[in-house]
Amino acid sequence: MSTQYQKQQQAAVVDRMNRLPMSKYFLKFVAKLSIGGFFEFYELFLVGSIGAALIDEKLLTTGSMAYFVGAGFLGMFFGTLIFGYVSDKVGRRNGYIYSLLIYSIFTICMAFAPSAVWLDIFRLCAGFGVGAQLVIIDTYITEMTPSSKRGFYIAYSQFITFWAVPIVTLLAYLLVPTHFLMDGWRWVVLIGGLGAVFVWWIRLGLPESPRWQEQHGQIDKADQTMKHLEKMIEQEVGLLPPVQHKEVKAEEKGKFSEIWKPPYRSRTIMLLVFNLFQTIGFYGFASWVPTLLVSEGITLVHSLFYTFIMALANPFGPILGMLTSDRLERKWMIVVISIAIAVAGTIFSLTRIPSLIILMGIIITLLNNWFSTLFHSYQAELYPTRIRATGVGFTYGWSRLSSVFSGFIIAGLLHEFGVVGVFGFISVAMLIVAISIGGFGPKTNKKELEEI
């Protein structure tokens, strides 16, 4: 295959993709893909939902709760790093399916864990599979949608994904107090593990990324994928706009070392700092909120109820992302919302009136999830196709490692300084996030991936 022919084909794939209008096809594709993200968020927020119950039942202490939280994030750290690289080698579709299967198997095992040690081991293994989901999903959607609507489709994916949060908190509220055949928290875990049932159904409707196919020399397959996609959308919306051809430099095969070379080195360092600290603000609240409420003297049942009410706000954060992600510069939106989270967290820590606790919890939830939709779109734009999943997987993976240690820090701060100390830590972390993106992040809105 000549180099010139590859250049022409790459230009055709890029231009053919970017001319496509919004359609139900893309919405259905993103919805199917987001089921994997749904189960990742189910797993992530599962800890906050059942953690207080595990402490109440003496299976865990506040100290060992940090190990339980940390085990999952440690598994996610390795899963994100390894599957990000694997996805660049075996394809977005295969990486997505295999990682989801690993999560499902070990989550089912966790539901029957006989002790705290096995609970941590199975969560570590489940984390290995689930940690890769959002990295692969972000990469997959970024490559499979037009450049002008990347932010919208990432936000739409998160809208679906975040429904996991009110669902898992409602299940915890209803099932944790029960003891039908086994402890109620085990039913909550088991329901999450049943995601394996959906894996093969999802697989049937997912095409491989034509950008990835082209990058790996599968020119004819990339063309076939694009023809199928164009046919489906043309049946829906009518005649497609003409292709506007642009000369695009053919990409070589990517290597891990490339993320440490200009112009990607500065982006890699910026994203490392960003991800080390953003996870403190995001998961520091989400993973610990029922435990934080119990520490303030609120009963377990009431803390789960308050958490459920706050969780109902989760899907609405991505809606804000859908409305703003492609209209306003993502870089500056991330900066502004990071500062807002720091301020809202401080107010939450000083509040003692139940209605105000719920109100501030809802505001933090909205801000966190709005923030999430923006940065998941943003970080997937900063690397070319050949190293996109590798770069995002490596940098995003450090957010998981950060969560391992931040759990121990939060447990210590909660013991020594209470909720105020925890949110002081969170606020400082979010200010560092704002500085890293505001000072060193490039602008990406309304640019084609090949131009960023």
UniProtKB/TrEMBL annotation:
<keyword id="KW-0812">Transmembrane</keyword>
<feature type="transmembrane region" description="Helical">
    <location>
        <begin position="65"/>
        <end position="84"/>
    </location>
</feature>
<feature type="transmembrane region" description="Helical">
    <location>
        <begin position="187"/>
        <end position="206"/>
    </location>
</feature>
<feature type="transmembrane region" description="Helical">
    <location>
        <begin position="300"/>
        <end position="320"/>
    </location>
</feature>
<feature type="transmembrane region" description="Helical">
    <location>
        <begin position="121"/>
        <end position="141"/>
    </location>
</feature>
<feature type="transmembrane region" description="Helical">
    <location>
        <begin position="269"/>
        <end position="288"/>
    </location>
</feature>
<feature type="transmembrane region" description="Helical">
    <location>
        <begin position="396"/>
        <end position="414"/>
    </location>
</feature>
<dbReference type="InterPro" id="IPR020846">
    <property type="entry name" value="MFS_dom"/>
</dbReference>
<feature type="domain" description="Major facilitator superfamily (MFS) profile">
    <location>
        <begin position="29"/>
        <end position="445"/>
    </location>
</feature>
<keyword id="KW-0472">Membrane</keyword>
<feature type="transmembrane region" description="Helical">
    <location>
        <begin position="25"/>
        <end position="45"/>
    </location>
</feature>
<feature type="transmembrane region" description="Helical">
    <location>
        <begin position="153"/>
        <end position="175"/>
    </location>
</feature>
<keyword id="KW-1133">Transmembrane helix</keyword>
<protein>
    <submittedName>
        <fullName>MFS transporter</fullName>
    </submittedName>
</protein>
<dbReference type="InterPro" id="IPR005828">
    <property type="entry name" value="MFS_sugar_transport-like"/>
</dbReference>
<dbReference type="Pfam" id="PF00083">
    <property type="entry name" value="Sugar_tr"/>
</dbReference>
<keyword id="KW-0813">Transport</keyword>
<feature type="transmembrane region" description="Helical">
    <location>
        <begin position="356"/>
        <end position="375"/>
    </location>
</feature>
<feature type="transmembrane region" description="Helical">
    <location>
        <begin position="332"/>
        <end position="350"/>
    </location>
</feature>
<dbReference type="InterPro" id="IPR036259">
    <property type="entry name" value="MFS_trans_sf"/>
</dbReference>
<feature type="transmembrane region" description="Helical">
    <location>
        <begin position="96"/>
        <end position="115"/>
    </location>
</feature>
<feature type="transmembrane region" description="Helical">
    <location>
        <begin position="420"/>
        <end position="440"/>
    </location>
</feature>
